[in-house]
Amino acid sequence: MLVLLPPSEGKAAGGTGPALDLGALSLPGLTAAREAVLDELVALCSADEEKARDVLGLSEGLRGEVAKNAALRQAGTRPAGEVYTGVLYDALGLATLSAAAAERARRELLVFSGLWGAVGVADPIPSYRLSGGVKLPALGGLGAYWRKPMAEALPQVAEGLVLDLRSAAYGSMWKPAGELAARTATVRVLQSKIVDGVEKRSVVSHFNKATKGRIVRSLLESGARPGSPEELAEALGALGHRVEPTPPARAGRTWQLDVVVTDVH
């Protein structure tokens, strides 16, 4: 199983590991593409703070992120799973996984990123600020920029089931095609309420991240190894989640799993 996660906008600072080594990251086929994005980001943030803030969409309160980006090559690193924070990662709780589940996480989780393309949770990276929706002056929109290198690199590691939990900005960086799409499942979180005796459902926005984090954690801890979207739906059901799978409407499309919740927290 391969699980694709979005990053978080906020990131933990203060890495104490050695300086960035792009060659040490997962998916080494992305090294040249990473180098190009890193070069432009560092140059942009080193040259003109106001322009950098405008390009990166940073508020006055996030001015310090520009200087942080300018120093990325010298900054200390920490595992990506510690750098990314926020609702999904709090619910996933990488630091509190059992030893066996933590090893699975190192093998099976990939975090998408506007700067790195995608990294494993154990990859040493510095804290940075670069949303997947940014358009860099020279390289252009990052969603479009990453499509070709990701299309070459990701199928090489996407064996078996792919669980795609990315948000829209990062979903544009890579789309599964062909038979790979048929073994890929996306997740939609729906809240169910009974109103006047009738069930009403609505799409959960912010708190869908927490549900997705809990789903991944339960899969890692359970030892379940689903090999297909159908088996994934069964495994999640056995773990106490209410799941309604929808197969692809046609070739080249992915499965959709609706996870229905009654409480959002």
UniProtKB/TrEMBL annotation:
Pfam families, A to Z: H2O2_YaaD
Domain of life the protein comes from: Bacteria
PANTHER family: PEROXIDE STRESS RESISTANCE PROTEIN YAAA, PEROXIDE STRESS RESPONSE PROTEIN YAAA
Family annotation (NCBIfam families): PRK02101.2-3
Name of the protein: Peroxide stress protein YaaA
Gene source species: Streptomyces durbertensis
